[in-house]
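Structure in, sequence out. Go:
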């Protein structure tokens, strides 16, 4: 891959962003005999997937999970000659509520009446999910109604059991959209569930967090970039797109690329940082103003051994009121050390970032210790992934609409504007906010471009 330098390029299609979406689009276009230039602002490929070595430990700083229903990602991994391995899950899980840790297998150890109510709520949600097309949730006959009530308020209208409502909300809000459930609509929640082939898949950690890629998820992007060779240019932050009827000029740091089409494959919150001339239409500007990313701290704690396994624990933990509300064994393939990954989301993350680094580390590890015991307090490596501060992302995991935004603007999000096309996991239907969705989105954008480049 060539590092960005002063150059002028003439290609069929320019692609902005070398994450899984942009690289998938480029791969499909090259396979169809088209020339491409992929311009990436960072000094690496992979976008929101990033595998790095921190203090001698390999950590998946960004997206990492592979699920059975993510068939396009699985096919891509196989085609690239990569391998996967299962997440360790042998042993008992731990549920923490009110500071009390309970070991369990199977269903959460909660009050029977609350468990029954959770099951009833899930059935109601699944019935709605079955009516929602993840590629066009705004087409649901009740789209406006469902999009103008927050998921929190909708749940409150469905049940008097606040504990059941809180648990159900946890698996959409903090766990997936990384926003509090009063900040997004019920339609947005239904899209999240429909994109994963059902709400039950979001509840089942053995489904949604099934496997990982040997060497890290970033290897998917790295392999695609290797095959594209010098078409990928790093350190080439795009500042301006000049568009005509069937031509574009893309001005980036160190390079000017001209083509017939451009695919912008970056998170939607970054699109407004690009000076587009003539400017994008009013609908696009409004759309971008109603989209935002959430916030999450992905915590990595590495130990000299996976000590929790000695105690018969899987490393999986849930605590609806804990600072670290989810915890998993994230030990690398064939690594003798033990790695845990935990998540601090939405309003908890807001609060945690007000603390000093030392206090935040102390409180996070104390939360993990409530699941696994005092040995959790002494990791050999501790690291926090903070994508909200990352220059070319500024949030996690993906963008979602504010109340009422999805049904108003969702149909416009993938619509080309002249020669400009869009691709990213944020705009995916199936696989929304996952690498699977990014690849689907990139391939669809490439197909749209190829259709318009004919003959």
């Amino acid at each position: 891959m060539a590092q960005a330098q002063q150059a002028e390029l003439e290609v069929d299609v320019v692609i902005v962003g070398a994450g899984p979406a942009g690289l998938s689009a480029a791969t499909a276009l090259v396979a169809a005999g088209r020339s491409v230039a992929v311009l990436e602002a960072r000094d690496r490929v992979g976008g929101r997937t990033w595998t790095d070595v921190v203090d001698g430990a390999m950590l998946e700083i960004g997206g990492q999970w592979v699920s059975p229903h993510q068939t396009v990602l699985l096919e891509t991994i196989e085609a690239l000659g990569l391998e996967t391995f299962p997440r360790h899950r042998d042993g008992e899980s731990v549920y923490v509520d009110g500071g009390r840790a309970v070991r369990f297998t199977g269903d959460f150890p909660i009050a029977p009446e609350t468990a029954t109510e959770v099951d009833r709520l899930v059935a109601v949600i699944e019935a709605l999910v079955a009516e929602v097309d993840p590629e066009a949730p705004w087409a649901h006959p009740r789209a406006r109604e469902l999009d103008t009530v927050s998921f929190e308020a909708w749940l409150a209208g469905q049940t008097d059991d606040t504990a059941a409502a809180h648990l159900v909300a946890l698996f959409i809000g903090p766990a997936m959209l990384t926003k509090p459930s009063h900040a997004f609509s019920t339609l947005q929640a239904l899209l999240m569930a429909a994109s994963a082939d059902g709400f039950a898949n979001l509840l089942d950690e053995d489904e949604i967090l099934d496997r990982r890629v040997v060497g890290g998820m970033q290897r998917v992007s790295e392999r695609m970039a290797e095959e594209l060779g010098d078409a990928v240019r790093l350190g080439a932050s795009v500042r301006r797109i000049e568009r005509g009827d069937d031509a574009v000029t893309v001005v980036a740091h160190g390079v000017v690329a001209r083509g017939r089409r451009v695919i912008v494959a970056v998170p939607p919150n970054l699109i407004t940082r690009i000076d587009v001339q003539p400017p994008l239409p009013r609908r696009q500007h409004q759309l971008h103003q109603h989209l935002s990313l959430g916030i999450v701290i992905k915590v990595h704690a590495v130990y000299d051994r996976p000590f929790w396994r000695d105690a018969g624990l899987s490393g999986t933990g849930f605590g609806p009121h804990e600072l670290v509300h989810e915890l998993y064994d994230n030990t690398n393939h064939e690594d003798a050390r033990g790695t845990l990954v935990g998540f601090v989301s939405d309003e908890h993350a807001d609060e945690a970032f007000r603390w000093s680094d030392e206090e935040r580390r102390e409180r996070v590890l104390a939360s993990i210790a409530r699941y696994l015991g005092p040995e959790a307090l002494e990791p050999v490596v501790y690291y926090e992934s903070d994508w909200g501060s990352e220059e070319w992302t500024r949030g996690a995991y993906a963008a979602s609409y504010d109340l009422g935004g999805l049904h108003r603007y969702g149909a416009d999000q993938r619509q080309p504007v002249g020669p400009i096309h869009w691709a990213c996991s944020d705009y995916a239907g199936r696989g929304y906010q996952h690498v699977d969705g990014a690849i689907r989105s990139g391939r669809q954008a490439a197909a749209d471009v190829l259709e318009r480049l004919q003959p």
